[in-house]
Amino acid sequence: MFTFLEKAVVGMALLRLLSGGIEVFAAFLMIRFNAVEKAIMINSSLALIGPLILILTTSIGIYSIADRISFGKFIWIFMGVGCILYGVKGN
Prior knowledge:
mainly alpha, 3 helices, 81% helix, flat
């Protein structure tokens, strides 16, 4: 039986798979280099990728439902994403 998958869901899932693959690759690099300083550098680089993936996946999802939600809900969504990004940003 053929199952129809929405393009937005596939795009969001692929971005998350890419993100997960980058995380696993970073873990292997940490083990390969076996140095705390390099592991911290690798981990810091991941701090840039996570929010970018969050913004991209959220944007894809919002774009796909844009015709079904009100402008007020858009504001709430962007405020929520903004709060998440503010909460995880480094000092």
